[in-house]
Amino acid sequence: MSQFPPMTYALDEEIARAEVYGLLARLWYAAPDAELLGAFGVAPTEAPAAGAFLEEPWRQLVGAARGTDAAAVHAEYDALFGGMGKPEIYLFGSHYLSGFLNDKPLALLRTDLARLGLARGDSVSESEDHVACLFEVMRYLIAGDDAAVANLAQQQAFFATHLQPWLPTLCDAVAQHPKAHFYASLAGFTRAFAEVEVQGFDMLG
Q1: Can you give the pLDDT at residue 95?
Q2: What are phi and psi of 130, to 5 degrees?
């Protein structure tokens, strides 16, 4: 993925929200390759609007991407989230919600995904509660063609149940980790974007 959301959108535009979720999903699922880092090199440094809440987190993320290379960010990803045995930081919701992987929160998530007509693809090795997979679901709930599934009510319910309770904890853990550089900036932007989403959902009542 080398395309960036246009930095002139209003935050309530559905397509732009979907593109941000898609970008976050790509960056949390695996380290960005040289092509994606190159896209950051020409990405606008202005966030959605002058003075907007996301402006500084986005600028920091762009700067971090321009200050690294594919090999370095790949090593950073492995140091934080990979390796044999227990990773430094887990990217799975069940770990934060219950303290265990593959636990009841994952079972609840699978039930909700089935209700939405969604299932993990054969090419995806991670469990459905991986943060990148959840971001992809949000992208679909915004941009999907089925209005019975892709609507604000479904987005709000899914986000409140499966992301909001633990995403800030993950972002804080990454932002504060001494091995995190690019991913510290990504965590800052992710948390800021999530806060904007919560505010938007709260306005729905």
Answers
A1: 95
A2: -60, 140
